[in-house]
Design brief:
The complex is a heterodimer of chains A (472) and B (1042).
Chain A (H helix, E strand, L loop, with lengths): L34 H13 L4 H27 L14 H12 L1 H12 L9 H21 L4 H7 L17 H34 L3 H10 L7 H34 L11 H27 L8 H32 L2 H12 L3 H13 L7 H4 L2 H28 L14 H24 L5 H6 L4 H6 L1
Helix pairs in contact in A: 2-16, 3-5, 3-10, 3-15, 4-5, 4-9, 4-10, 5-7, 5-10, 5-16, 7-8, 7-9, 9-10, 10-11, 10-15, 11-12, 12-13, 13-15
Chain B lengths: L11 H5 L2 H6 L10 H4 L6 H19 L23 E9 L2 E10 L2 E7 L12 H10 L9 E2 L2 E2 L2 H17 L3 E6 L5 H13 L3 E5 L6 H11 L4 E4 L6 E5 L10 H12 L10 E6 L4 H5 L2 E4 L2 H15 L9 H11 L3 E5 L4 H14 L6 E7 L6 H12 L3 E7 L3 H4 L3 H8 L4 E4 L13 E2 L10 E6 L2 E5 L12 H8 L7 H15 L4 H7 L1 E3 L26 H12 L6 E5 L13 H5 L7 E2 L4 E3 L1 H6 L4 E2 L2 E9 L2 E9 L7 E5 L23 E3 L2 E3 L1 E2 L3 E10 L2 E2 L15 E3 H6 L10 E2 L7 E2 L17 E6 L8 H9 L7 H5 L8 E6 L9 H4 L3 H4 L9 E6 L8 H5 L5 E3 L5 E3 L9 H4 L7 E2 L20 H4 L14 E2 L5 H13 L12 H5 L5 E5 L6 H6 L1 E2 L11 E2 L4 E2 L11 E4 L1 E3 L5
The chains are: A mainly alpha (472), B alpha/beta (1042).
Chain lengths: 472, 1042
């Protein structure tokens, strides 16, 4: 492990203390940044006045949030009937959006926990924002299991195993929906704690630099009295490690459990054992795409090109190729198994995906998820910022359609042909989805403005020392 | 210690030993206390606290004041009414010429449900959808609450005075008085009319029917010299040939015929034969859907095919498909055959009579000595009435519970003619199309508020008794007529009872018993009937006048000429002639064939649609302009497999303008299109029909849009009779799954389970459904809706596929055979090919409700355990606990769960369709034993758990176990074909136990709930191992080959 060094203590003549970075490698932070530069670059956003771009983004986000909130209000006031669901298709956009947001929420923890354990230093300049994204995405995801309930006002606490006055009435531990409740809440809690612990030293830096009393008080409170002592750093390191250890299995378990919602059912197209790994791969795939989308914007607007380098983008694109290909293989495996199983209903379900009334959704999914990421085999494309940006959005469109295809096309034509029906979304389906977008971007923009978007403390540990600079 | 003798005085008073102080020194409170003030009437601190406590309580109580709804208790408890205990009263449903003997269930004095009366030899406990729905019309908010004069309320006394005065003045001037009605089945009402006629001798009673059968009356008169409709007994027929007669749906007496027919379709150990049924028709009717051989023919060919059959029986080959085959079968069956025709043309009916005579059916399947009195309309007399009225010859007209302005083809004529009639009275229960045009409305009671009787067929009498005190200021028509006829202090009950007493005494019966049973049979040979018609005698059918047959055939040949597109008008099973069109239950009841609700539409064949470029986009299709003569109507198109390709069909009963907010403006009125053939009104229009496809698109609300069962043998299992006779398990599909546990390497899915199964120590409820006897009539559908307070959601929500029906009848057509496919269709993928329907498909009806799975997929997925398994095999739904995740509905392989997308009751969004849950009057029909579900919860078939509990408690009170038959679910009890059997599968004496040949088995570490021995019985989707408690019996068709 590296030992982060407070910039006050650092003298340019000192040798870098314990960096693992080889001098032969490309530096992870470019532009010849000094530790002081790092502090300045990151704190600039926090300490300065909000930029016009930020204000504009915030205005759009808040407007979206307001429109969405209206739709949420109507949904709760009138009933689930304002959505396009019906007696055959009982879930559509709601659970599609839920799984999609949960999927997106995978990248943050994966980057900060798993890559931490694998000692991937390049994660350092992106993990803070990625974790923030995770937390906001999980919040957005959690909106849907709540809002999709017919009686939200009872559901949000009846679904929890709380002692009650109903006698022996208890939740149904057999239900995958209940497992979801546990999985998501655990994941959210661990991610939040992990993220916050990481923020403490940076808050302390801001506190120490604060010029006005409000900042001093707020960041003082947020930094929990961080003193920068060696002992504190040591504890910090061990907590980070423990939390990383806890979070790592969660990255795998959350989407595994989400996939159980479908895998344990009897509906053809849902009832497949391949779902857990396939969902996890898909989640990482979409999570990285979302991280890229956000990072490319943040990098540009906050001028962090030296911290989030082409190298970072390329690394993430490589992960996208790998997970995208896993997802592609999973799609094909499902088809093979449907054919191989000899189960008529199963075969029909998959044939119907490809050629039925929702063929366009299926082929959108295939194009976006399987074909388009293959472009990243070309180094030119995977190091091209514009191409990466476009593809990262395409991947998330594809992943939304993946969930839509799984949920809607399986339900709309299941066992008894008499019940076959179509699902058509209404403006409220769209509106509630927009609500989560509004929520996500509002939260992310607030984060970007008031919190350090890059983990200063960690990044400082990988700054090249002056000796390397002299070599250049 | 120092000297401690200090004295502390309480005050200067003690020191001075003030006498006042000394006096009070011994008291606890020597000083003045405010408490003493109390005695003088002031207020104390305690009082203040009391007052404040009261004040706070009063203020807070006042703040949460709720609207006061007064519940007024009985002063004395009525003898027969116990809260929570239903009473049942036998009564009779009569609507126009339709008849059904019923038992009315009342709770706390309110009729809430109609059941069939098993004592009736005619309906035998069966009902149909319209009968089931009739209880709802009692609580229709559109009913008139007062007699009316020129639109304003009036008292009965005023009305009687005015009407009697006017009638008297008309009668003294010799003005003509007409009473117009549909067929009157009630002998006592006929007596009332006779009394009225005695007082006003210029009165004539004019009778018409909305679906006339006068052709039969006339033909029988010509053939046998007797104007009557004979009674039919389908149960004795081995071969049935029907030409356009929808005898299971709408023709003459469908409930009775369904009962009889189902007996010939039932198969079992002792019975390996079933009837063979041929149908020749233009539209696909419910009856046609049940036929073994169905030939689509144009209306013009329908009459000719009757002739062709006649000739085929005499040895002449026919070019019409299946005629020769039918003839051969008929000949073989001889007297055990029955040929019927739905035609209203006496010539066609004459040929039918000749065929039946030739076959010797009279005496076996047809009993001419026992005529039925259902459709006695006289079109000539009605025509004369219309002409007279137009010519101003009629001075007074009383419309007795009929609506000829709407439901005859003379509507416009009558409307104009009424301007010339001086005194116009209607007894309609609502401001219908006719009542809108009259001066006086003397609204009749609903039949559930009335006394009465009915004479459906010779010797069979049926009684009507009130089941509730009249809700509004209405009055029975009979009383009105008698009052106007000058009878003092009319009491129709006494009149009715007085009329019956002598007859009953003569038969050794009591009035009470007759009312209790609801039906009586009187042997009437040789006696005069109450109809006042000619003497009946022991009349035997002789050979028809043979000379009339060539004449009839030549008439058919001249009258039936095809000219391109033809129109076949029909009645829908639910809406019928439109009298009950304001019933939301019937409006939302999916038509058994098209599965369409809330509309009528033009049914066209697939070939016609292709030829005329009818396009379909997302469920919508083009509208059509239907022109007959100079009348044009715009209506939606529904493609109907089985429709003859040059015939289009459309149902009457829609396009009401004045029936109430449910019915008004739904569909189009096609009564004006009814034509005349051979002097009789005809639902077939053979000339001047043109159809133009319009660019406007419209979506008909259908509850099922996928027509075929996609070759899924696990859903529908069927065989031909020949196969069944060889192997009772023919057509069964036995899924197998691979396992290492068996030597063969495979086993049936039910043998493997993750679950331990259930042990049902007490009861184990189940259903058995015979697909062979189910005709798809949908009586169960409405019965379920009525029993379980199921909301109606309206056309838009049906389009959104959110109908709430707990049970549905899945209707599947057979897929298109390869040879019928076009070239492009042949190039399709197999799965797509299966979606195409045959042009003349085989039809299967499958009632589908919650299957009460023993390994219920819904139960495991509910996060809050709102749906659980009972110890008696029921999958039960706890509404209070449901949070509405809909996971259970998604995971239900049968898709029988229904979600409350909105609040359906007391919601302005639904008040126009779900009327009966939106107003206090309508809510009286709700079953108090069943919760009205709130928004956001899931619901589904409970297997009428309230009935099960009630039956168990009744048995317990008597200290016994419930016997088979004590408890019956709503669908099974309504079923006129006994296709649904409910019972305790643990009870070895139960019908279901015997029917399914249940063997109890237990296996090592898990329990198989019930092993079914009946080879025909199967579980839908057996391969997924959910182990339902509902079993189906295979569909067997009496066909030579599949």
């Amino acid at each position: 492990m590296s030992i982060p060094i407070d910039d006050i203590l650092v003298n340019k003549d000192h040798a870098p203390s314990g960096p693992v970075v080889s001098s032969l490698r490309e530096p992870l932070v470019t532009g010849g940044k000094t530790v002081h530069d790092v502090t300045e670059d990151i704190c600039r956003q926090v300490e300065g006045k909000p930029t016009t771009t930020w204000m504009l983004g915030m205005a759009i986000s808040l407007a979206t949030l307001a429109v969405g909130a209206y739709c949420v209000f109507i949904l709760v006031w009138e009933g689930i009937g304002v959505w396009g669901l019906n007696k055959t298709v009982g879930w559509a956009w709601d659970i599609t959006n839920f799984v999609w947001w949960v999927g997106i929420g995978h990248a943050g923890t994966l980057i900060s926990a798993i890559l931490l354990l694998f000692r991937q230093k390049w994660r350092m300049s992106i993990n803070r924002a990625a974790e923030a994204m995770t937390i906001f995405a999980v919040i957005c995801a959690a909106c849907f299991p709540g809002l999709h309930m017919g009686r939200l006002w009872l559901g949000f606490y009846w679904a929890l195993p709380l002692p009650n006055t109903f006698g022996s009435l208890w939740v149904n531990f057999n239900s995958p929906l209940l497992w979801d409740v546990f999985a998501i809440s655990t994941y959210f809690t661990v991610s939040l704690v992990f993220w916050y612990i990481g923020l403490i030293p940076d808050f302390a830096s801001i506190r120490d630099r604060a010029k006005n009393n409000i900042s001093k008080a707020v960041y003082g409170a947020l930094s929990f009295g961080w003193d920068g002592a060696a002992k504190t750093w040591m504890r910090y390191e061990s907590v980070a490690l423990i939390l990383a250890g806890l979070a790592t299995p969660l990255v795998l378990s959350v989407h595994t459990i989400v996939s159980f919602d479908f895998a344990t059912s009897v509906i053809p197209g849902w009832h497949t054992t391949i779902f857990p790994p396939y969902f996890v791969a898909g989640a990482i795939f979409s999570g990285f795409a979302m991280v890229l989308t956000l990072m490319l914007i943040t990098r540009k607007t906050f001028k962090l090109e030296d911290y989030i380098t082409i190298n970072h983008i390329e690394m993430m694109n490589i992960i996208i190729i790998v997970t995208g290909s896993i997802v592609g293989i999973a799609y094909i495996t499902e088809f093979f198994i449907a054919w191989y199983s000899g189960v008529d209903a199963e075969q029909y379900a998959f044939l119907n995906r490809m050629t039925g009334p929702y063929w366009w959704a299926y082929w959108t999914m295939m194009t976006c998820n399987v074909i388009s990421p293959q472009l990243f085999w070309f180094k030119k494309i995977r190091t091209n910022i514009a191409a990466t940006f476009i593809l990262s959005i395409i991947v998330n469109i594809g992943m939304w359609f993946e969930r839509f295809v799984i949920i809607v096309t399986s339900l709309h034509r299941d066992y008894l042909p008499s019940s076959w029906a179509m699902f058509y979304p209404t403006i409220y389906d769209v509106g509630v989805y927009l609500f989560t977008f509004g929520l996500f971007f509002t939260a992310f923009l607030l984060f970007a403005k008031f919190f350090p978007v890059i983990n200063m403390a960690e990044v400082k540990s990988i700054i090249k020392s002056s000796s390397l600079k002299q070599k250049k | 210690m120092s000297d401690n003798k200090k004295t502390y005085w309480k005050g200067i008073e003690q020191l001075t030993n003030d006498p006042a102080f000394v006096k009070n020194a011994e008291n606890e409170f020597p000083e003045f206390l405010p408490i003493s003030d109390n005695e003088e009437g002031g207020s104390s601190r305690r009082d203040f606290l009391k007052m404040m406590g009261f004040g706070v309580a009063a203020v807070s109580l006042a703040a949460c004041e709720a609207p006061i709804r007064k519940a007024i208790p009985y002063v004395n408890k009525p003898v027969d009414i116990d809260p929570g205990v239903p009473n049942y009263y036998a009564s009779t449903y009569v609507q126009g010429g339709d008849y059904c003997s019923i038992v009315v269930k009342t709770r706390e004095g309110r009729p809430i449900k109609i059941e069939g009366n098993e004592l009736s030899k005619i309906s035998q406990g069966g009902v149909n959808a319209q009968v089931e729905a009739s209880v709802l019309s009692l609580y229709d908010n559109e009913r008139l609450r007062n007699p009316k004069k020129a639109g304003a309320d009036i008292t009965w006394e005023e009305l009687d005075k005015e009407v009697a005065a006017k009638l008297n003045s008309i009668a003294t001037q010799g003005g003509q008085i007409r009473i117009v009605s549909n067929t009157v089945l009630s002998p006592t009402t006929k007596r009332v009319i006779e009394d009225f006629k005695t007082k006003y001798p210029t009165t004539q009673h004019v009778v018409y029917d909305t679906a006339a059968a006068e052709g039969m009356l006339v033909a029988n008169e010509q053939s046998f010299g007797k104007r009557m409709i004979p009674s039919y007994d389908f149960s004795k027929a081995d071969v049935i040939v029907s030409f356009g007669a929808d005898f299971l749906g709408t023709w003459i007496s469908p409930v009775e015929f369904t009962k009889q027919y189902s007996k010939t379709r039932r198969l079992g150990d002792g019975k390996k034969e079933m009837s063979r049924h041929y149908q020749f028709e233009g539209n696909l009717s419910l009856t046609g859907a049940n036929a073994d051989y169905r030939t689509p023919v144009k209306p013009s060919e329908e009459a000719k095919s009757v002739v062709a059959l006649y000739q085929a029986l005499t040895g002449k080959k026919s070019s019409i498909a299946n005629i020769d085959k039918a003839a051969a079968d008929l000949k073989k069956a001889g007297s055990k055959s029955l040929v019927v025709s739905g035609s209203n043309d006496p010539a066609v009916q004459a040929v039918v009579n000749a065929i039946n005579t030739m076959l010797g059916s009279y005496g076996t399947t047809i009993d001419a000595s026992k005529p039925v009195y259902y459709k006695q309309g006289d079109e000539k007399a009605f025509g004369t009435f219309v002409a007279d009225a137009k010519a101003g010859k009629v001075s007074a007209v009383i419309f007795y519970n009929c609506n000829p302005v709407y439901n005859t083809q003379y509507g416009a004529d009558i409307k104009n003619a009424l301007a010339k009639v001086a005194l116009k009275i209607s007894t309609s229960d609502r401001l219908d199309e006719t009542a809108d045009l009259v001066e006086y409305i003397a609204p009749d009671h609903h039949f559930l508020e009335s006394w009465g009787d009915a004479n459906p067929s010779k010797g069979v009498y049926s009684f009507v008794q009130p089941t509730i005190t009249p809700i509004f200021k209405t009055r029975q028509v009979q009383e009105s007529l008698l009052t106007w006829a000058g009878v003092e202090k009319v009491d129709y009950f006494e009149y009715l009872k007085g009329g019956w007493e002598t007859t009953l005494v003569a038969q050794g019966m009591s009035w009470d018993k007759a009312l209790h049973d609801g039906v009586i049979e009187i042997s009437e040979s040789g006696t005069e009937t109450d109809t006042g018609t000619e003497e009946e005698g022991d009349w035997v059918v002789g050979p028809p006048a043979s000379a009339s047959i060539p004449d009839a055939i030549s008439k058919i040949n001249t009258n039936y000429k095809s000219s391109g597109t033809e129109l076949s008008i029909y009645q829908k099973i639910g809406i019928g002639d439109g009298t009950q069109a304001n019933s939301p239950w019937l409006q939302e009841m999916p038509d058994p064939i098209t599965k369409a609700t809330w509309d009528n539409y033009l049914t066209v064949s697939q070939a016609w649609a292709v030829e005329n470029d009818v396009t379909f986009v997302e469920g919508k299709s083009n509208m059509a302009k239907l022109t007959v003569g100079d009348t044009s109507l715009t209506l939606p198109i529904v493609i109907q497999p089985g429709q003859e390709k040059e015939t289009v069909g459309v149902a009457v009963g829609y396009g009401r303008t004045s029936a109430g907010k449910v019915a008004n403006g739904r569909g189009v009125d096609v009564y004006p299109l009814i034509s005349k053939i051979n002097g009789m009104s005809s639902y077939s229009v053979m000339s001047g029909v043109s159809v133009e496809v319009l660019p406007e698109m419209y979506q008909v609300a259908q509850t099922q849009t996928q027509q075929t069962y996609m070759g899924r043998e696990t859903v529908i299992q069927e065989a031909t009779l020949g196969e069944y006779q060889k192997d009772p398990g023919a057509g069964r599909y036995h899924p197998h799954i691979a396992t290492w546990q068996e030597e063969s390497g495979e086993t049936s899915p039910g043998n493997l389970s993750l679950w331990k199964g259930h042990k049902y120590k007490n009861h184990h409820w189940g259903l058995a459904i015979d697909l062979n006897t189910c005709t798809g009539c949908s009586a169960c559908h409405v019965a379920c809706q009525s029993e379980n307070n199921i909301p109606v959601v309206g056309r838009e929500e049906v389009i959104n596929r959110r109908d709430m029906h707990w049970m549905r009848i899945d209707r599947y057509y057979s897929s298109r055979p390869e040879e019928e496919m076009s070239e492009s269709e042949q190039g399709m993928m197999d799965s797509r090919k299966l979606e195409l329907t045959a042009s003349n498909p085989e039809v299967t009806f499958q009632p589908m409700m919650c299957q009460h799975c023993n390994n219920a997929p819904c139960e495991t997925v509910c996060p809050v355990a709102a749906t659980t398994h009972s110890t008696e095999g029921l999958n039960q739904m706890t509404y209070n606990r449901c949070i509405g995740t809909r996971y259970c509905a998604n995971n239900c392989p049968y898709k029988v769960r229904r979600f409350n997308w909105f609040k359906y009751h007391d919601n302005s969004q639904f008040e126009d369709v779900n009327t009966y849950m939106s107003n206090d009057l309508g809510k009286m029909v709700l079953n108090p034993d069943v919760t009205v579900r709130s928004r956001g919860v899931m619901e589904k078939c409970s297997l009428c758990v309230q009935r099960i509990q009630y039956g168990k408690l009744e048995a317990k009170k008597e200290g016994r176990r419930p016997n088979d038959g004590d408890i019956n679910v709503a669908c099974a009890s309504a079923c006129p074909s006994d296709a649904i059997v409910f019972g305790d599968m643990n009870d070895k004496e139960s019908q279901i136990y015997k029917m399914l040949k249940i063997q109890d088995t237990e296996k090592a570490d898990y329990i198989i709930e019930k092993e079914i021995g009946e080879p025909r019985a199967y579980h839908v989707l057996e391969e997924i191992g959910v182990k339902p408690n509902v079993a189906y019996l295979t569909k067997i068709r009496n066909k030579d080959k599949a």
